[in-house]
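Annotated sample (chain length 304).
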Amino acid sequence: MESTVALLTDGPALSLLLAFCAVVAAAALLIGWMRSLVSAVPLENREYLDPPPAYWRCIGWLARPVAAWVAPLLPRLLRRRLVDRLRQAGLEYALTVDQFVAGQVISAAAALVLLTAITLPLGTPKATWLLLACILGAFLPMSWLKDRIGDRARRIAKALPFYLDVITLAVEAGSNMTGALQHAADKGPQGPMSEELHRVLRDVRAGRTRAEALRMMVDRLRMPAITNWVAAVLTAERQGSSLGPILRAQAEQRRSERFLRAEAMALKAPVKMLFPLMTCIFPCTFVIVFFPVVVRLVYEGILG
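Output written by the structure step:
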């Protein structure tokens, strides 16, 4: 008993015990503060919303308080630009601007913690590296959003000629434009174009005019092919022209554009393959070809 008391009253042991207690108390206070912060933010009603992407589902419990914290700090111009980007990516009803920025903040903090944990055994990391880690972490969600927008635009451009063919056949068979859009949305393959047509039809059923619903689709997608198609349809309806030939011409033009895009991608393939060829394939080929020659020269004493 006396030895235990002497060990506890020893200077280094007592300091270690106090440091451990302080760490436990700080961790408990941090957990309690985070719980109070999370519980103070009201839950979001997602009954009529789309499910968020996987990353935001994983950080959902942490994204809510962070989103509430960053919401008053976002300028109006940045908020408007992010709304447009989320709309182009088809995430308008899955993520809010505050939630997306919260994901950027959490990603930046995760990159900062990861860099600190990796470099701490080698010494304290420099402020420049910490700043670069934060910038990279915040840039990753924006890069993912840009890739999603590009992939969605490519899928729409690829599927558009088929949908225009279905709309043309329905119009020429005697259906009106709204019925043709319904046929295309029901019979077409599942994808972003089908989702956009279903949304146009929902807007029409909600009381908007068909022209207004189509213009809203143009504003969401910001694609020249969609803009030209909608402009041609609205112009023909306003002038009383027949929609069949106009829609058929639009389908042929979109199909030609798709062929030209595929041809351009095929022409870019050799340029993209040049760097892997020079860095990976050519060195290995040279080693395989010249290794027996070098061994023969060394064996004969020519290469000392």
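Annotation: The CA atoms of residues 89 and 151 lie 9 Å apart.
Annotation: The chain has a mean pLDDT of 84.
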